[in-house]
TrEMBL record:
Keywords: ATP-binding, Ligase, Nucleotide-binding, Pantothenate biosynthesis. Pathway: Cofactor biosynthesis; (R)-pantothenate biosynthesis; (R)-pantothenate from (R)-pantoate and beta-alanine: step 1/1. It comes from Scheffersomyces spartinae. HAMAP family: PanC (MF_00158). The keyword Ligase applies. Gene3D superfamilies: HUPs, Pantoate-beta-alanine ligase, C-terminal domain. It catalyses: (R)-pantoate + beta-alanine + ATP = (R)-pantothenate + AMP + diphosphate + H(+). Belongs to the pantothenate synthetase family. InterPro entries: Pantoate_ligase (IPR003721), Pantoate_ligase_C (IPR042176), Rossmann-like_a/b/a_fold (IPR014729). Signal peptide: none annotated. This is Pantoate--beta-alanine ligase. The keyword Lyase does not apply. GO terms for molecular function: ATP binding; pantoate-beta-alanine ligase activity. Its EC number is 6.3.2.1.
Amino acid sequence: MGALHEGHCSLVKQSIMENDHTVVSIFVNPSQFAPHEDLQSYPKTLLKDMELLAARFPNKPVDAVFVPTVSEMYPSGITLDVGNQRGAFVLVLGCSEQLEGVTRPQFFRGVATVVSKLLNIVTPDKIYFGQKDAQQCVVIKNMVKDLLIDTEVRVLPTTREESGLAMSSRNQYLSPESKQHSAAIYRGLNAGEIFYYSQNGPTKSTDILDKVRSIYNQEEKSRFELEYLSLNHPETLDKLDIVTPGEGAIMSTAVKVPRADGSGQARLIDNVVLK
């Protein structure tokens, strides 16, 4: 969705390494935003994005940057009110309703719709996503499988800042102080991960999540608001009571922290994959 950073560049780099041609799409997708969310303020930095791509890949540049208009992507028009939308939309049932889907029920409907459109337009052999958006990766994998789309979904590790904070376009909303507090997101997940692997066997989800919360509870509530923390099956996203080695889990969280301009909160997500 633009506001490119090194996390996006890692996906582009992998595509350039693995393929003859690479296309980068940049499109802030309105159908995945609710009326009260940050569509209008979402960072839109197309010129900087183009400059970054040129600077980071001078020897083998990307072959095309696809920047469609809203009217091209939604020829029937688009409104943020789902009840008044017209046209074709894609809903991936069973893995869209939990986690992010609880507080953002329209989100994965919008994601699946726009990704299906992009795949239809570009018809790529491979498409690249970051693990930071773990539920999105599961939704897209299921959509590609069920709609018989001939594209391989590649998921690459989360790119992190030196503090451990997952790189995100929404990090632009944060002050240095908020970034410092937000680094606790990964510290907590990492504490849960270390505990799980120390058990060397099936482990209660509650015990793992308690380790994460012990880190989060050290942060002031006004600076760090936990929205959810969950352990889910890596393929179905069913909630797990026990995490079993070999089957594993996705441990994911969403946290709200103050924006630098005082206009409210920025919502950050992160996860780690337990094997």
